[in-house]
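Report of the visiting student (M.T.), summer placement. My assignment was to run the structure pipeline on a short list of targets and document each run. The first record concerns L-ectoine synthase.
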Amino acid sequence: MYTLNIDALNGTDRDIQQENWRSRRMVLAKEKVGFSLHETTLYAGTTNEFWYANHVEAVYCVGGKGTLTDLETGEKYTITDGFLYMLDGQEKHRVEVEEEIRVVCVFNPPVTGREVHDENGVYPLILEDENA
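After the run finished, the structure tokens were exported:
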């Protein structure tokens, strides 16, 4: 059994902080369960563009308010507590944050925690060493 209190991640290499957001990675590829699980906070007043070309991501909002835009179709959705979106077609998307947003994100394949968004907002596909 794996257990964790999210506050134990504060200040560790699983606590990724950027100018517009913070992501605490609770489950990573090294746990070898086939997905990764993160709690991400998107800061109020920010605009964030992402494109997970190598991953499927499901995002469940547990607080806040903003607008999700599918950059391929132009469709817009209101993000509020209880809203879920899944990027099962690796859609390029934008999140405009009206009130600080907290989301729980699941990635498949799982991220390792070493990924960094490139200039297009893409995480590279990094696989864990099976022997690690």
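The chain has one domain: 11-108. DSSP finds no helices and eight strands in the chain. I thank the supervising group for their guidance throughout the placement.
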